[in-house]
Amino acid sequence: MRVRTPAAVAVIAAALAAPVASPVAASAAASEGRAGDIVSVAPSAFHPLPGQPTGTRAWKIHYRSTTADGVPNTVSGTVIVPQDGRTGPRPLVTYAVGTVGMGDSCAPSNNLPYGTAMEANLIQQLTLRGWAVVVTDYEGLGTPGVHTYTVGPSAGRAVLDAARAATRLPEAGLPADTPVGIMGYSQGGQAAGWAAELQGSYAPELKVKGTATGGVPADLLKVADFNNGSYGAGLVFMAAAGQDAAFPELRLDSYLNPAGKALVAGMKEGCVAVDAIAGSFKRISDLTTRNPLEQPDWQARLNQSRLGRTAPAAPVYQYHALGDELIPYAVGRQLRSEWCAKGADVEWRTIWVGEHVSGVITHSPAAGNWLADRFAGRPTHPDC
Fold first, then answer.
1. I want to staple 332 with a disulfide (CB 3.0 to 4.6 A). Which of 4, 84, 181, 320 is the partner?
2. Helices 329-341 and 220-227, interaxial angle, to 10°?
3. Which of 111, 164, 186 is nearest to 142 (CA)?
């Protein structure tokens, strides 16, 4: 989960580009071929700010992936490769963005070409190191259906399959044995964490060297309770809509009162700057006839997205702001403890000054340096 504080929203909110129609029918195309196979490719561009040059080539791709329930689907994304004269192999980072919203116009692939993607400057830090980057749009964001926001297994597979797709894109020049790093913060931290946990069983052929993940909403029930009635409350309702999109049997609509139905309907079409403000300071009881999070089926599905049950096969760099006002610091610490208990190689960093949004900005260089050490084959420094 990721949201901007009201001040940050005012600074970064920009008119997002209109949605690009998917050239494929997701259900039909996804059923043919392997996870990570490319369905379609088209030239794109990468600009951190409108018109800002980056010395890169980019392609928008649609690729095959897998839903939380194991059903083939199609996801979109963007592959970015520096044009720096390098002829040998280069690392690849599969990058998971934080919350952008649920409407198709919010998808990174629809904004990276125009300089309106919120994390583009962080992605540029990676391309300036000479690394290729692939950015998934996640399930249902920029492709048919509702975005399955906060559904961890789906997001983790989309992140891993994006890396597979990038190495199968001839134009990118990335061989199958390309060293891979996984990176994400907030919603992207959840996706990166799930990719790290799933990689050993789902994509063991990927040469993953490490995962840098921060501000991780590892336990959605605890995060929902923490945000209920706060200015981050909109995230709770976005997450409910995302879970309901993945698992229609949850029947979210049957729990919502008229105000709740109107809010959620708007969230499915909107981007985070508007959605976060629209849902701020609302309590679950304000918008429901009964609380779905108190029901066993909802709790089971939310717990299905809980991280910490499997040790990542590759090393992890995990960071969290002590003053995080959206994702409790204790949730991040608990994930670190659970990964450590299972024998994972984890390096933990507390961000002592700052909050949720500033955490990703100030700590992005350190996370990149850690990945650089992994690509260089330097020893890790686990501190479990």
1. 320
2. 170
3. 111
